[in-house]
Amino acid sequence: MTRYDAVEAASYRVAREISLTGLSSWRDAVAPYFRPGSTVLDLGAGTGLFVRAFAEWFPDVTVVAVEPSAAMRSASGLPMLAGHAEAIPLPDASVDVVWMSTVVHHVRDLTAAGAELRRVLRPGGVVVLRSLFRERHSGIGLFRFFPEAARALSSFPTVAEVADGLGFAVDRLEAVPQVTASSLAEKASSVRWEADTLLRSLSPDEFSAGRARLLAAAAVETGPVVDHLDLLVLITVGGV
C-alpha cells in the first residue's frame, strides 16, 4: 500500500477530509452492516476521518484502525495499529466488517489481501469499500477542471478486478453522493496536488491550469460540490 510522508499526511487532512454532514449519505449506506456490538476494521484508516465518523454515527460499534503510514497515524491523533492489507495485525475471526475507504487501488497484492481479509473476518462478515473504480468515474467532478487527471485512472482497478482479485463475490454496488465542499471556492482553497492520487499524475503546468479553471468557475458558481463514490459490498464466495 502507498505510504505517505508527513507533508502529504498534513495536506491530506486539508484537501481530502470531508465534514460529517457532507458524508451523511455514507452513514445511511453502511448502517445495515454496522450492527450494535459488532467490530469494524478500518483498513487503511489514513488520518482517521471515518474512525471519527463511525464513533459519532455508531457508538455501539467497536472500530479498530490499521494504517501503514506512520505519518498518517501521527496526523490522525488517534490510536491506530501499524499494518497493511497483506499483513493485518489482528487475530483470526476477530472482526465483523472490514471497511476500506479509497484504499483498494493502493493494494499491491489483491490475492494476499483477500486471504488476510478472510482470515480476520468472522463467519458472515463483509468487506465494505468506498472507492473509485476505473470504469465508474462519471460522478467525480475533479475531471471537469483537471481533465488530464483521467490518465491516472489506469492505476485504478475495475469492480471485477477487485472482487476476483480478493476472491469475494459482489453483494451490492451503488454510487453514493457526498458533499465534498460547501462551494467551489472552498474546494479551490483546499485542493492540493500531493494529497490526491489523480492529481499527482499532473505536471505542474497541468495542475496550475486546472486550478485556474476551478477558480474561474468558483467566481460565478454557488452551491455545494457533490461528488459520487461507489459503495461496494463484498461477501465470501457462496455467502458463507
List descriptors.
single chain, globular, alpha/beta, 240 residues
Short description:
The chain has about 240 residues and is α/β, with parallel strands linked by helices. It contains 9 helices and 7 strands; from the N terminus they run ααβαβαββαβααβααβ. A 7-stranded mixed beta sheet has the order 3-2-1-4-5-7-6, with helices on both faces.
Q: What does this molecule look like?
A:
This protein has 240 residues and is of the alpha/beta class. Helix content is 32%, strand content 24%. The protein contains 9 helices and 7 strands, in the order ααβαβαββαβααβααβ. The chain has a 7-stranded mixed β-sheet with strand order 3-2-1-4-5-7-6, with helices on both faces. Helix 3 links the parallel strand 1 (39-43) and strand 2 (62-67). The relative contact order is 0.16.
How does the SSE layout of this entry go?
Layout: H1 6-15, H2 24-30, E1 39-43, H3 49-57, E2 62-67, H4 70-76, E3 81-82, E4 95-101, H5 110-120, E5 121-131, H6 142-145, H7 159-166, E6 168-181, H8 184-190, H9 204-218, E7 225-236
Parallel strand pairs: 1-2, 1-4, 2-3, 4-5
Antiparallel strand pairs: 5-7, 6-7
Helix pairs in contact: 1-4, 8-9
Trace the largest sheet across and list its strands. Answer: 3-2-1-4-5-7-6
- Specify Rg, calculated over alpha carbons: 18 Å
The largest β sheet comes out as: 7 strands, mixed
What sort of overall outline do the alpha carbons produce when their principal axes are compared? globular
Poorly predicted residue ranges:
7-15
Distance between the termini: 28 Å
Q: Secondary-structure element order, as H and E? A: HHEHEHEEHEHHEHHE
Estimated share of beta-strand residues: 15-25%
